[in-house]
Amino acid sequence: QIELYRDGRPIQTGQVPVLAVKGETFRAVRGELRLKGALPAGQYYLKAQVTDRAISPPGSAASWIDFNVVD
């Protein structure tokens, strides 16, 4: 799942597909989040989170990046 935050609140979310990698036991995640129009100037955070439900108990990992939109 991908979430875009502004002012501490999620403003947009999206799902990404999980891809099987031929000949490997791991999976890759690849995707994009298409913005719904222009973003006003400000500070934003983008969070990408994955959950592996094939293991017990399920495990999760998340990564964040911040960026600024300027006029």
Task: Walk me through this protein's architecture.
With 71 residues, the chain is an all-beta fold. It is 0% helix and 55% strand. A four-stranded antiparallel β-sheet has the order 2-1-5-6, with no helix packed on it. A two-stranded antiparallel sheet has the order 3-4. A hairpin with a 2-residue loop joins strand 1 and strand 2 (9-14). It starts with a strand and ends with a strand.
Brief descriptors of the model:
elongated; 6 strands; two-stranded antiparallel sheet; mainly beta; 71 residues
Radius of gyration: 15 Å
Question: How many beta-strand runs?
Answer: 6
Sheet with most strands: 4 strands, antiparallel
Molecular shape: elongated
Any low-confidence stretches, pLDDT <50, length ≥5? none
Strand percentage: over 45%
Structural class: mainly beta
Biggest sheet, strands in spatial order? 2-1-5-6
What is the straight-line distance between the termini? 29 Å
Quote the average pLDDT: 84
Helix count from the secondary structure assignment: 0
Fraction of helical residues:
under 10%
Order of helices and strands: EEEEEE
Give a quick precis of the structure.
The chain is mainly β.
Strand-helix topology:
Elements: E1 2-6, E2 9-14, E3 18-20, E4 27-29, E5 42-52, E6 59-69
Antiparallel strand pairs: 1-2, 1-5, 3-4, 5-6
